[in-house]
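Lecture notes, continued. The same structure-token format from the folding unit now serves as the input rather than the output. Read the line below as a description of shape only.
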């Protein structure tokens, strides 16, 4: 975060540009359908969009609006919020400027298809890859409400790692095509010393979520400390 300034970090941090990166690496079939993109929130064609969709900006984290019923959407508030986000440089205004990959992204709006079930977003599988090899993953539930996680190794066996989040106590089933998810994560991370690859699995369909070199920014703890040291040794 302090020293790496490879321009590829700008590409993979830009939620629009990284779609091309993913398509070239593993194929466009893993991308969530893009319904619209642009720079002016007043031009979003709400009347042409389905009842459910997701509004994002491409240049940071947490800039996301889940729309479950567009007829209940308060358009002035949504447009106002998007204008605020578009004027924000996520790198310069968070974490003391340490997430450099976001610094030089040209802010844009993107509207994606909604892939969750009901009002809940899909389970999020985050693969931690060192030199192109999945070491472990964290599985995230209810990210926008009561965020809980569990960790597993590359064979989907319990792994001794957690952030400072409450642990998921419910059933955590291994996806039937889990091995393909590992292959996708490893292909996307193969040129990096470290990268986290986020994927969804909705009824057996794998979708790409995000590539990030900055998991948790500088705001979360790796627990236990022994795992922190172990993972540090994997970083070549």
């Amino acid at each position: 975060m302090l020293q790496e300034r490879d321009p590829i970090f700008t590409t993979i941090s830009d939620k629009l540009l990284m779609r091309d990166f993913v398509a070239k690496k593993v194929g466009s079939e893993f991308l969530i359908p893009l319904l619209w993109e642009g720079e002016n929130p007043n031009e979003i064609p709400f009347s042409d969009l389905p009842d459910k969709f997701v509004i994002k900006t491409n240049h940071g984290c947490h800039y996301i609006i889940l729309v479950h019923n567009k007829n209940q959407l308060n358009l002035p508030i949504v447009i106002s919020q998007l204008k605020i986000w578009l004027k924000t440089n996520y790198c310069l205004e968070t974490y003391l400027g340490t997430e450099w990959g976001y610094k030089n992204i040209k802010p844009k709006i993107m509207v994606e298809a909604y892939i969750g079930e009901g009002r809940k977003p899909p389970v999020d599988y985050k693969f931690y890859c060192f030199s192109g090899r999945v070491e472990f993953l964290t599985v995230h539930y209810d990210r926008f409400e009561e965020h809980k996680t569990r960790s597993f190794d590359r064979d989907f066996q319990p792994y001794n790692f957690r952030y400072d989040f409450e642990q998921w106590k419910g059933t955590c089933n291994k996806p039937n095509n889990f091995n393909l998810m590992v292959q996708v994560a490893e292909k996307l991370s193969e040129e990096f010393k470290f990268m986290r690859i986020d994927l969804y699995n909705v009824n057996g369909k794998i979708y790409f979520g995000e590539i990030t070199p900055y998991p948790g920014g500088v705001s979360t703890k790796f627990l236990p400390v022994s795992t922190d040291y172990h993972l540090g040794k994997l970083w070549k």
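Point for the exam: Residues 125 and 233 are 23 Å apart (CA to CA).
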